[in-house]
Amino acid sequence: MTNKTHDESALEHGQCMLNRREFLLYSGATAAAVSTITLFPGTAQAQSARVVGYSRKLIAKLSELKDHELVNFNYPDDGKNAGCMLVKMGNVKAGGGIGPQSDVIAFSYLCTHQGGPLHGSYKVTDDQRTLGQCPFHLSVYDLRRHGIIVSGQAYQSLPQVLLELEGDDIYAVGMMGLLYGRNENLMTA
User: Fold this and answer.
1) Residue 6 falls in the annotated catalytic set
2) Is there a catalytic annotation at residue 137?
3) Which residues contact 136 (CB under 8 A, 6 or more apart)?
């Protein structure tokens, strides 16, 4: 065994290692090659788009709603953790809102961070309509802006129930966002 100097050992070690620039160059080239290979016919199986068919569920009558009084319901199914709320926010226009003032909206009651219950946390101020604070980590959601998170640990908007108005009838017809604790919004039997 020969004794090598520190410089000789470092030189040999450097010959078998990649520097950062070489790593990025080679990994980028590898990624490009893999993505190009998958474009050739026969190398990947085609997958059809999956369209989720939500049921249409009657929730309430527009004429019976009173400002800031919540209507509780289960959607998109009657499974565990499907609790939602519908509210007329008192002539304050909301993203996804229906009705003459676009102020009727619906959301899930489960915080998107760790599924904390948001029941009883609807708050009204002059210019805000919020749901929260979540009892787990204090997340608060702005209901006027599609349930976007305004404070707390959550990093996703609150799942919004998509609504349709037919005459005086308010129907839930879909979900925007994934309910906490689920891989899919619809439970399979």
Assistant:
1) no
2) yes
3) 111, 113, 114, 116, 153
Cα distance between residue 55 and residue 156, in whole Å: 24
The CATH class, in words, for 57-176 is mainly beta
Amino acid found at 119: H
**Which residues neighbour 21 within 8 Å (Cβ) at sequence distance 6 or greater?**
none
- pLDDT (tens digit per residue) in 56-104: 999 999 999 999 999 999 998 886 667 999 999 998 999 999 999 999 9
Identify the helix (H) or strand (E) that includes residue 166: strand 160-166
| Strands ordered across the beta sheet of 83-88 | 57-61, 169-176, 160-166, 104-108, 83-88, 71-74
Residues in contact with 152: Cβ distance below 8 Å, sequence separation at least 6, in sequence order: 113, 132, 133, 134, 137, 138, 139, 140
From the list 13, 68, 137, 146, the catalytic residue is 137
Predicted confidence band at 40 (pLDDT cuts at 50, 70, 90)? Answer: low
Instruction: Single out the residue of 131, 136, 129 nearest to residue 118, CA to CA.
Output: 131
| Residue spans per domain, the chain | 1-46, 57-176
Which is catalytic among the residues 6, 68, 113, 146? 113
